[in-house]
Amino acid sequence: MGSNRKELSEFILRTAEEIVGQFGIEKLDEMPLKEANAQRVVFKYQVARLTGCHLETARRNVARACRRLRHPDRREPQRGGPREGAGRPPRAPSLYEKLTAGMSEKNQQAFVLCPMYIGGDSTDIETFIEMVYQKPVTDENFKQVAHEFRRWYRDNYPGEYHPPPIDPIWPARGVH
Asked: Do 105 and 74 form a contact (C-beta atoms < 8 A)?
């Protein structure tokens, strides 16, 4: 048998179902409890011998095979995969994401990198857009907004501000 754990588990279960099925689940259920337990031990050793699994694994699979044969329409509990109500709820877009939704991806990248040239970081531009500018930023006006941000940052953080070596929005001009 292959090394795939799922395939191996299914093989052990199929073997247990065949062994219990050949004996007959009705016959096993009609037996007195002590005899039925003794017969399940016999099944356990047969499954372990045929599949090479541990006796505890064989015992669990014999019990599972008995349940499946008694209730063939019962659905097995599923493991893994998405479950209703599990995980974190979907994240709502931030105000910054809503206000910059009208920009192309290329311009958004340039816009987010803009603060780096003057001593700021991306959270500074988010704060500016959400708290100060408070209007949508589009591909048409993002250069103007970037310069307004630069002026706002220079006025509010004079100790951290430094003039950019080049203008990242218009590289041909060095606007301070």
From this structure: no
